[in-house]
Predict the structure.
Amino acid sequence: MADNESRVALVTGGSRGIGRATVLRLAQDGFDVAFCYQSNEQAALELEKEVQEFGVRVLSRRTDVRELASVRTLVEETERELGPIDAAVTAAGITRDNPLVLMKDEEWHDVLDTNLDGVYNTCRSVAFGMMKRKGGSIVNISSVAGVYGNATQSNYSASKAGIIGFSRALAKEVGRYGIRANVVAPGFIDTDMTSVLSGKVKDKALESVPLGRLGTAEEVADLVAYLVSPRAGYITGAVLQIDGGITI
Ligand code: NAP
């Protein structure tokens, strides 16, 4: 696909943080962009305006990624209004941290349902169309917690490890249809998700980051934009860490 062709991207969890930066980056690259969010309509409306400044089309919907039927509707509306989806990015995600012995069932299920089922629901909804069209690119946002595990995040780490296994299986299944599926695994990124952490927790984490700072959502979005572009045409099934070296 040439860089100047009209393309459509869908980003889940696009209203804030990494998803938001990805929506803007893809719009800057000329994608028409659809994105969904869970509750923060104000953030979504503000983002819509910013996206329009790039001269591309934008569609936003309040869609709970935990519900397959809702995600299917989002995909149908996107394809009806913007055209076939070329790139899907799953950034919707939550944390509900607790040591395992204190973890509540709902904390376990909320995280697995949002982070892992959300990825399944999205990929399940876009894959068939991409297969029929013989092309597409999927980027699922995991975490270094899914590769190495984080104490007090057994639910989150399990969900993010699940995304890696899922995406590798998907890459093997759909590669012959010209579809690439990759994973981005960020470390500590400066978003609302990490702003709730105490200064002490942040300082401790930063001690392990060779680059000595949190990453930005824009830096993650740049990597996503690369992965969905033709420049990454021979990359699939990859898990790309973007973590300032925290896992060295
Ligand atoms: P964030 O700032 O908290 O934003 C989360 C986004 O997900 C929001 O747009 C939110 O919508 C949406 N969302 C949450 N639950 C949803 C649901 N059920 N259905 C639809 N949308 C939903 O998070 P972030 O830091 O950008 O994280 C984005 C992704 O990167 C997540 O998957 C996260 O696990 C991953 N990640 C983040 C970091 C980090 O350090 N920040 C590190 C590694 C991986 P509303 O605005 O409506 O709430």
Observations:
- The pocket of NAP is lined by residues 12-13, 15-19, 36-40, 43, 63-66, 91-94, 114-115, 141, 143, 186, 188-189, 191-194 (CB under 6 Å).
- The radius of gyration is 17 Å.
- The mean pLDDT is 96.
- Residues 189 and 215 are 4 Å apart (CA to CA).
